[in-house]
Amino acid sequence: MQITYLTLLPPILVLIAAFITKKIKTSLFLGIFSAALISNNYGIKDTLTSIFSRFYDQFKDIDNYYFFSLIFILGIIIALITKTGGAQALGDIIIKKAKSRKDAETSTLLLSTCLFIDDYLNSLTVGYVMRPLTAKFNIPRVKLAYLIGVMAGSLVVIMPISSWVGMLIGQLSLSGISLDPAAKPIILADSFFVYLKSIPFIFYSFIMIASTWFIVRRRISYGPMHQFEKIAKETGNLFGGKFVKEEILESTKTTHSILDFFLPILILIFSVIIGIPYVGGYYLFGGTNTLIQSFQYSNASLVLCIASALSLIISLIFALIRKKIKIFDTVTITKNGIEMMFASVVTIIFAWVFGSFLKQDLKTGIYLADLLLGIVNIHILPLMIYLTSIIIALAIGSSWGTIAILVPIVVPMVLTFLNIPTPTLFENVILLLPCIGAIFSGSITGNHLSPISDSTIMASTSTGAHIIDLVKARFYYVIPSVIATSISFLIIGFLINKNIYLALTSSILAGILISFGLLLFMQKIFRRS
């Protein structure tokens, strides 16, 4: 088909539908249908056939089965940790050390950091575990919800063994980053290796994590959050003066062990660290590749799948031997874990199919690049992508949906901007790293700002904070990080081709320092007014 402005219609429809319906799967299917309809010249029979074919393609790819298995197994591990009380045990240890409001908030950040493996596990567990301690020190629920919400989303995207990894490398593969000739790649590189290289460029996560610690340790308080803290401190009401009937979860003595939390995570980490170079042919394991080459040529989906399965099996046996669970509990734990992740897997499949239409049929990225080529300076491309990602994530309330929309568009668009023939080596497209980092950063930023995002709902649910109160109070604390991150992406755009290490260091340090300065400035201004 001829590439026209109609190639932009499906992504726009997804945005509008998600904003109106708040249902990302329904919105993605609308995008799939409209993309197939346009690419098949509005023939209904051909449209339905191509949709069926694209879904079939996803189910015949063995790597996708590795990925789906990984997601479900991680869900079961999360359910197991919850059942055995591993997270509760960790929380009890942290709680005993807290002697002040600062200690309680610091403990919240520490517990959240330990639960980096999944943002849902993080938000729900930390919220419920920390409610009694924060209530003891009259910390408002909005403050607790803010702390766990921003930490959970910021951590999970930069951790290479989190429940997000499969989705992230899957989207990069779908965009044309692969070493498999059968996939007709436009960039010759392993998608997991590219993800690892892009982690330092996910500026928002690093800036937000640093800023949140700065807020807690320096006792930064202003705007609506300051009012909530003032009311809680003076009256003991943790909900901003509103009457809320609530049962406080008190800590009780249990036989929970910290091993129940750390064992599955440590086994998973160790297995991945050993498995990736082993499968990639690292010379110490009898292969011929260097460590870097082994990461490039390893099958990350397979390794992550096997590592998670090994972690689950050993952890289940460990729990059964110690009689922390019964044999029949394994059925319930498995069921709960699969149910927890099922909706995410369906969303991923829809996102993959939608992305394949954008990349292979509509060539949306190429069209958008041609449209902007004579208008936009390439140095500000990472900044533009970051701001665009924020808008999309804010509108649809989904980080994964945002990534699914933009990655298949941005990767070919960058190649077109640089006028590089395909396929090409990854080393020729270094600008792609900050662009990928901008997508991931923007998707998390928008998720933190959106009132309909899963992070907002999870943080509100686990802490008991009112959603609207959380959205208003969090906005004032997130904006400094947004401004700082925008400047970081502006800096990297101009310096990336000069010296990548200097550019990366300058961008991150500038972003963190600017965010700190803005937080201090806003506290001074709001306290004065």
**Strand-pairing-aware structural class:** mainly alpha
Molecular shape: globular
Radius of gyration: 23 Å
What level of helicity do the residues show?
Answer: over 70%
Number of helices: 23
Helix and strand run:
HHHHHHHHHEEHHHHHHHHHHEHHHH
- Span of the ends, CA to CA: 59 Å
Largest beta-sheet details: 3 strands, parallel
What does this entry look like structurally?
The chain has one domain (5-158, 170-242, 256-528). The model is unreliable at 247-254 (pLDDT under 50). α8 packs antiparallel against α20 (432-449) and α8 (141-156) runs parallel beside α22. It is globular and about 65 Å long. It has a three-stranded parallel sheet. It has 23 helices and three strands. It has 529 residues and is mainly α. The protein has helices at 9-21, 24-39, 44-59, 62-84, 86-97, 101-114, 119-136, 141-156, 165-174, 191-198, 203-217, 223-235, 259-279, 291-297, 300-321, 329-362, 364-372, 381-396, 399-418, 432-449, 454-463, 467-495, 500-528, and strands at residues 177-178, 187-188, 424-425.
Short description:
This protein is mainly α and 529 residues long. The protein has one domain. 74% of the residues lie in helices and 1% in strands.
